Amino acid sequence: MIRVLLIVATIIALENQGDAHFIPYSSPNDAVAFWPLNDKHFLNDTSGNDNHAQDIWGNVTLIPENARGRRCGAYEFRGNPSSYLFFPNNGAFDTKKSTTIMAWVYPYGNAGPIFFFDPNTTVDGVQLRQILNGTELYARVIFTKRNTVPVLPIDIKVPALYEWYHWAVVYDFDNHTGYAYLNGNFIASIVLTPGEIATQADAQAGAALYPQEWFNGLLTCIQIYNRTLDIYEIHTAAHRPECECNVGGDPHITTLDGRDYSFQGICWYTLVKDCSSTNPQFEITADLAPRDDIGDQIRTRAVAINVTVGDESVVVDQNNVPSESDDSLKNINIVHEGDKAILTFELKDTTFKVFWTGKKHFFNIEFTGDYYRGKMCGLLGNADGDAKNDFQKPNGVIVKDPIEFGESWKVQGKQC
Questions:
Q1: Fewer Cβ atoms within 10 A, N terminus or C terminus of the chain?
Q2: Are 238 and 264 in the same domain?
Q3: Contact (Cβ atoms closer than 8 angstroms) between residue 346 and residue 335
Q4: How far apart are CA 26 and CA 10, in angstroms?
Q5: Does Plastid show up as a keyword for this record (predicted)?
Q6: Would residue 21 count as lying in a domain?
Q7: Residue 208: beta bridge partners?
Q8: How many independent structural domains does the chain possess?
Q9: Cβ neighbours around 367 below 10 Å, total
């Protein structure tokens, strides 16, 4: 049924078999509503618009400090009608046109509302919720229109139960298109009828009268913007200091198996390479350098990326200028799309793509194929499907400390 809906709704979908990110430092700071929902900010709206959340029945529990890995906690919803948070809307987050809404979600398994506008009516407001399709859990967004014209949903299969996932939804008023992102990756889009969306009412998380479903799990870091955020801003907003309680932790890296961590390296580091033999068939490295605009606190960013395949190597700087012309390269293909340089190469049954946006110091690495799964190593892990063993040093030892792990992958002999 989900597949039929996606086809009928003219959804464009993209699924990556392997994906890793470097998240730059600067985060968007213009949220019209922002509830970190943790033990540092509690139920407060930190956007300055004073739409503080309310636990009407006292049936939502703050799990302090380490809530399933969240450093500064999260709020737990019990999966019953009185376990919800109420968000009064004084008009500040009535975005009505373009909007971005996001949250970190830790599901226990049942369907239920994540963020629901006008929750006590017959679903007349914009809805973010989880649904059950058979035994599988999906995240669903419905960009309900103000004129109550029915619209089709975007459904995204949740990666796994009892794991955190980051969900962001975007509505672009100008092209009346909705977008969905899961863990920072674009997943799907849907073209809808033109018009303003129904965000004028109050909202709730955890419960809604219609449908009568109650979310069971953890929520934290709910944010609303009155514009469309791009993929870079979604990445950084997901890791805002207010949510992670670690102001000095940027930049953020997500491994190929989805493990997030922060590391402040200076010089060249191996992101990922072939570890199936003593003579790697490929290696991707990045040059990390301190920012020059943040005072005494050291924070680094990627300023160049290097791709080596066999005996062939090319460096692309922060202006997206390659050290070698595309004509002189046999194994590596380089194309420019807008502000991105895309480097592609193929080995065995696998295609690798490196998306580099130099001016934003952002990279994204994707691969499709099976041969190199579990045979890679570097800051982006081994891509074996198990995020728990990603912190493996060159000598094979698995460590817990991200700094020890990161420094072990510093490229020796490079001038910085």
A1: N
A2: no
A3: no
A4: 34
A5: no
A6: no
A7: 213
A8: 2
A9: 23
Concatenated DSSP letters for 238-274? HT-HHHHS-TT--SEEE-TT--EEE----EEEEEEEE
d(CA 184, CA 167): 8
pLDDT value at residue 18: 58
Closest residue by Cα to residue 257 from 374, 348, 404: 374
Instruction: At 191, list the tokens.
Output: 């073209």
Q: Judge if 71 and 218 occupy the same domain.
A: yes
Q: Is 365:271 a contact under the CB 8 Å cutoff?
A: yes
Instruction: Residue 306: give its domain's CATH number.
Output: 3.40.1000
Asked if residue 293 and residue 161 are part of one domain, the reply reads no
Tell me which amino acid residue 404 is. E
Pairing, β 165-172 against β 376-377:
unpaired
Residue 190 belongs to a domain: yes
Asked if 352 and 16 count as a contact pair (C-beta separation under 8 A), the reply is no
Domain co-membership, 304 together with 395:
yes
Which class for 177: exposed (0-12), middle (13-18), buried (19 or more C-beta within 10 A)? middle
The pTM of the full predicted model, rounded to 2 decimals, is 0.68
CA distance 70 to 301: 24
Residue whose C-alpha is closest to residue 165's, from 122, 114, 108, 106: 106
pLDDT value of residue 290: 84
Among 211, 244, 277, identify where a domain stops: 244
Are 299 and 250 in contact by the 8 Å Cβ rule? The answer is: yes
